[in-house]
């Protein structure tokens, strides 16, 4: 009787989240949770008129063990006469190319493949077997990263085409379901590898919290995620309403009045900035630090100052208006001030900006030997601010010309070498705070000439447009 009730509870969860007649792609690794999901959907298939395709993604990480998992899923489907797709990806290669962790790379590739299969079969939903334990782990992972409400809200039961019917069901309950239904399943040996952060949370942090603080911690964390998600969704709806009312949008840019933007509560202000960026089709997320830099740009109120953002985009403040645009649009190119976050440059390895007469490249080079073949280089640890700027001169700029005996005001340096006034106005500088690192295309700074033991370097280069270039 108890077994029947537990099976019914699992089936009820599926029915609650998937309407009659749904066309479904079932993500199936071969583990207990996804086998329970596939079996439950098959039990309900006739009653609910579900159209099912099982999809298994092999990530190229575990050799023969992973191939055996794929064979297991194929056989599971053959015995039950359900359509099956097996696709293979190279997570390690993609991780190296995209500068992601192997975990993140595997997840991105997996969902890319699942959406391809969704389109191929003209299905409506991708259904995954994420459960309550996964939700608890996800909340803790986001908490450790310093996420906001979007991350702390964890996974949603419904996220566009993705449906997760088991977020209120424990891993233990799904394993019990498999036992009651006499279902074999595979166990992924990498789930025990403490190299992966999620596994550390699963095998070290959560057991500690259960043992020392709350034996029902997974349920409590999953409940907290649900509450935070509800609040986040409400704030997102409010921000979307404000965005539609007050933000001007075209194919390449979004703009708004900055006095209005700053009058909003912080939670709405930051969301609208992220929406402005996202509406340009940029992939990924705008981080907390990047969002704060945009707000700082607005607060500073320096017209025609440009802040570079991920995805080939930038934010420009000009006379009471904030514009987030593709970097090559006229409104962005018109700004002659460019701001680069050092953490973003370090992560990307190389960033570029289009100037009126060429392409300026800023690079991060890790290594004790000074990199060769660059217009100028600078020790990374001597950079005294969190940002680099490409801009025209300002009062108080200090320059230490390479090969000289010491620093002087940039104005005096220009006087000493008799730079004409018009050239002084147009000369672009690469600066870090008030320190001038390079007169773009000309003299470099020598702040570091006696420096020893550098472990990383800033590299600076410019490639000028030729007469034949469209630019």
Automatic annotation (TrEMBL):
<keyword id="KW-0067">ATP-binding</keyword>
<feature type="binding site">
    <location>
        <begin position="29"/>
        <end position="34"/>
    </location>
    <ligand>
        <name>ATP</name>
    </ligand>
</feature>
<dbReference type="InterPro" id="IPR012795">
    <property type="entry name" value="tRNA_Ile_lys_synt_N"/>
</dbReference>
<comment type="similarity">
    <text>Belongs to the tRNA(Ile)-lysidine synthase family.</text>
</comment>
<dbReference type="InterPro" id="IPR015262">
    <property type="entry name" value="tRNA_Ile_lys_synt_subst-bd"/>
</dbReference>
<keyword id="KW-0547">Nucleotide-binding</keyword>
<dbReference type="Pfam" id="PF01171">
    <property type="entry name" value="ATP_bind_3"/>
</dbReference>
<dbReference type="InterPro" id="IPR014729">
    <property type="entry name" value="Rossmann-like_a/b/a_fold"/>
</dbReference>
<dbReference type="GO" id="GO:0005524">
    <property type="term" value="F:ATP binding"/>
</dbReference>
<dbReference type="InterPro" id="IPR012094">
    <property type="entry name" value="tRNA_Ile_lys_synt"/>
</dbReference>
<dbReference type="GO" id="GO:0005737">
    <property type="term" value="C:cytoplasm"/>
</dbReference>
<dbReference type="Pfam" id="PF11734">
    <property type="entry name" value="TilS_C"/>
</dbReference>
<dbReference type="Pfam" id="PF09179">
    <property type="entry name" value="TilS"/>
</dbReference>
<dbReference type="InterPro" id="IPR011063">
    <property type="entry name" value="TilS/TtcA_N"/>
</dbReference>
<keyword id="KW-0436">Ligase</keyword>
<dbReference type="InterPro" id="IPR012796">
    <property type="entry name" value="Lysidine-tRNA-synth_C"/>
</dbReference>
<dbReference type="GO" id="GO:0006400">
    <property type="term" value="P:tRNA modification"/>
</dbReference>
<comment type="function">
    <text>Ligates lysine onto the cytidine present at position 34 of the AUA codon-specific tRNA(Ile) that contains the anticodon CAU, in an ATP-dependent manner. Cytidine is converted to lysidine, thus changing the amino acid specificity of the tRNA from methionine to isoleucine.</text>
</comment>
<keyword id="KW-0819">tRNA processing</keyword>
<dbReference type="GO" id="GO:0032267">
    <property type="term" value="F:tRNA(Ile)-lysidine synthase activity"/>
</dbReference>
<feature type="domain" description="Lysidine-tRNA(Ile) synthetase C-terminal">
    <location>
        <begin position="388"/>
        <end position="460"/>
    </location>
</feature>
<keyword id="KW-0963">Cytoplasm</keyword>
<protein>
    <recommendedName>
        <fullName>tRNA(Ile)-lysidine synthase</fullName>
        <ecNumber>6.3.4.19</ecNumber>
    </recommendedName>
</protein>
